[in-house]
Amino acid sequence: MCRFVYGFGVGLATAQLTRVVLRDVPVERSGEAPGAQSTARQIGSALGIAVLGTVLFTSTGTLLQHRLEDAGASSASASQIADAVVASSGGSIAALTERSPTAGAAAAEAFSDGTRAAAWSAAGFLVLGLAATLRLRSRPDNTEEAGPDAAPATADATD
Q1: Which of 3, 54, 100, 155 is the most buried (most CB within 10 A)?
Q2: pTM for this prediction
Q3: Number of structural domains in the chain
Q4: Per-residue pLDDT tens over the stretch 38-55
């Protein structure tokens, strides 16, 4: 389901983004603009994944370590468990729950809270993107499209 929503959103955004990018590009350079736009999109995707992954795993590890220490675990033990959960991308939570239901519940809750922090971070970046989009200047459309035969406009017609 997530892939569908992501694909649908990217499909809607890409069409509009291409239109915005090509709006001010001269026709003779229109072949370069989509390549630049695609490169920027790919760099943004890679950076976004890196930033959101960092937020997810850093917050998960920190929250889990604090919860385990608050529950009475030693700092070294809490750190080791948090590192194992983060290193496995949450895959070790099920095995941890079998060994220690309290630690497993803390890990599941910390992973959920880390996911929430990453989602809020993504939402913040979306708001920044929206604000940047709203600040794009609009080119006035009061000029007619001039063909290649059109004479250049002159400022003074009394020559």
Answers
A1: 100
A2: 0.69
A3: 1
A4: 888 889 889 999 999 999
